[in-house]
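PROTEIN DESIGN WORKSHEET
SECTION A - STRUCTURE
LENGTH: 232
TOKENS:
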């Protein structure tokens, strides 16, 4: 496997390919339409309007996989989970767990750094109604597969929501595939652990389906699992 510096370089290659990807016409059309018509609250801002790459620590023991960029969040800022309500929840939880250098994320230049964690998604372009089609997930799957291969130190994969769970479980050949549930764990080939979490979408956080203690428990468990593996 490549040494750490080479691994980081190869991840940057994947990130660049994601940013320039135009494989899915429906997603390309939507992300660019949204970028050309900013919300009034973001008037004057230049939207990213491209595929949004993963980011974080190339030596990470924790990988977090989301669904897809938000139209006026990561599609605007160009960094996963940055600039929207879901990101507010995610980065605050990662900060409390010691995985992020600060509890907020507003732009690619805000100084946020991930420690021992890497964030990516099943689909890298903002989809209409936040619902990618199966063919779009399939088109994006090779990017996630390459990240999973390159992030060789990852011991725990946290999937945010059922869509991400299905993507990762399918790529890694999880058989049988247990039912998705918050804090459910599954052993993966290679000694990794798949850890499920409800997605920190407003639909879940505003209704109390996902609470801060529930979300914190996910990353506390991830830390426990990686610490156990490091000691063994």
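SECTION B - SEQUENCE
RESIDUE ASSIGNMENT:
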């Amino acid at each position: 496997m490549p040494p750490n510096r080479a691994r980081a370089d190869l991840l940057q290659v994947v990130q660049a390919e994601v940013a320039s990807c135009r494989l899915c016409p429906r997603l390309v059309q939507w992300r660019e339409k949204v970028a050309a018509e900013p919300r009034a609250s973001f008037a004057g801002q230049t939207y990213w309007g491209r595929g949004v790459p993963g980011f974080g620590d190339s030596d990470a023991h924790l990988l977090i996989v989301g669904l897809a960029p938000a139209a006026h969040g990561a599609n605007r800022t160009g960094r996963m989970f940055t600039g929207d309500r879901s990101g507010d929840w995610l980065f605050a939880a990662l900060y409390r767990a010691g995985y992020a250098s600060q509890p907020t994320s507003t732009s690619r230049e805000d100084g946020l750094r991930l420690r021992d964690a890497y964030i990516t998604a099943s689909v890298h372009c903002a989809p209409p109604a936040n619902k990618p089609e199966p063919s779009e997930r399939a088109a994006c799957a090779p990017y996630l597969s390459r990240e999973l291969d390159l992030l060789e130190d990852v011991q725990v994969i946290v999937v945010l929501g059922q869509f991400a769970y299905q993507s990762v479980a399918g790529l890694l050949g999880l058989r049988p595939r247990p039912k998705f549930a918050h804090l459910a764990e599954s052993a993966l080939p290679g000694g990794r652990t798949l850890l499920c979490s409800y997605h920190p979408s407003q639909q879940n956080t505003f209704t109390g389906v996902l609470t801060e203690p529930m979300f914190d428990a996910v990353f506390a468990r991830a830390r426990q699992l990686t610490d156990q593996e490091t000691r063994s």
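SECTION C - NOTES
The chain has a mean pLDDT of 95.
The first strand starts at residue 55 and ends at 56.
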